[in-house]
Amino acid sequence: MVTFHTNHGDIVIKTFADKAPVTVENFLNYCRAGFYDNTIFHRVINGFMIQGGGFEPGM
After folding, report:
1. Domain range enclosing 18
2. What digits encode the pLDDT tens for the residues 26-47?
3. Residue 26 lies in a domain
4. 3-state secondary structure 1-59
């Protein structure tokens, strides 16, 4: 599990390393490196997905 702490509350992400081990490890490496720090998440569908990646409004 990975938890993103945002100004609108926490986002908890469940990973499935048994189904996608390379993808999960890549994602976790990005998390450990702080890649998502101060990233804007512009679309969240509870229980389904989040989209983000912008570092300033309008991206």
Report:
1. 2-54
2. 999 999 999 888 888 888 898 8
3. yes
4. CEEEEEECEEEEECCCCCCCHHHHHHHHHHHHCCCCCCCEEEEEECCCEEEEEECCCCC
